[in-house]
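User: Fold this; tokens only.

Assistant: Input:
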Amino acid sequence: MDQLEYLESERQKIWKKIIELDELIQKKTSDYEKEAQQASRKTSEFRNKTEKAKGNAEQFLSECQSILEELRTEKESLKKLNTSISRFYHTSKGNSEALQKDLDELTRRKSELENQINAVEEIYAGHEELVAQIGKLSSISTQASDLFNKINTLHKQAISRKEEVDSLYYEIHGYDEEGAEGEEDTHVEGIKDKLDSTFEQLESDFQELGKKVEKIENESKTNYDNFITSKDDSFEKKIKTWNSEYSRIKEQIESLLPNALTAGLSHAYSEKKVKEESDSKKLRTQFYVGIFFLVLVSLIPFLVSINLLKEGKEISEVLLDLPRLVISILPLYVPVMWLAYSANKKLNLSKRLIEEYTHKEVLSKTFEGLSRQIDELEDHDYDVSSELRIKLLFNIMEVSSENPGKLISDYNKSDHPLMDALDKSAKLSKAVDKLTGIPGMSKLTEILEKRQKRILNKELAGIDEALESTENESENA
């Protein structure tokens, strides 16, 4: 199509040039009129030839393009045939014959195309501008020739690939050679036949190997039974030897038991320390849980007050209701506080016991080393070593005789914080009574009692007012 457009544009330019020449001729004198008319006739004749040549060129160009498309189609088919030849051996022969036919057809079409191109060159031999177009057609013909050469090369490659496939097939499956007259055909073995024979040989070898393994198994079983019998006798002898050795070592251990006293004490203290550490972790967790729930219970009045304010209640009414809310959560607050208070008290006691058991464990472990060092001093100064040994034994006995349970005092009293507060207040009153016997202190105690009563009366009055206001509100409601 590009070539047709180019020819059309050239024709229009020529025709435009002819019209311009015609106008110039008409403006000249009459001397050139005849010559102009002849030129016009030649121009018309040339235009007709050009249009005719253009039509023929377009026809030839369309034929060339169709042939080129056919060549491309044949090229793609050859590629597909090349792929199919490598994959399918039995279909390669038929495809090769079809490819040969296509190649002959292409050769015939190429010759026809060359004849047509020669005819076009003869028609446009005298026109310079069309010569360039014919040159393009010649280049197209050259490209067609190149495609033909490529197709021929692909055909040769396909034939060589077919031969390779044949050789590979014969190498794998083998082939039959025709014998002479009166003789049978001989079969040449391929890789497949060799593999089959090798497999049969391996199978027979495997059966023989199984028989040998069975024989070895029977022999091994017999040898094993003989080995067990011989080893039983040797084991009995060794057991007797070990029993005598055990008795000897046992007597030696029993003679050394007094030295193991400190090791036993240190082990016992270590076990108690580990148990107390475990209890301490539980008590610490219990204390943290108690504090957490105390915070939650303490947030109840605050959250209720916020909710009442959101519902539109006055802040003064919320503040009046706050004491009742605090009193209402006391049944929740007191048990949780009791739990946290008791856990804290037991946790402190557990820490003290852990330190006590650690101290006893360290002293028990150092006894053996100190006693050995004292034994080494006997060679130099017997009196000093005896005195040190006595002091060491006295200290160990004193430490061991101390009962860590004495730290658990007031075990018969409750851990309730309220009871603890009452107990402390009673102790305070007793202390105050004792202070009254001191000159000048009675006046001080009276002032303290009056101040305490005044504060107490003030608090009671506030509670009474809150209760009365609550009753009035309930009656009004």
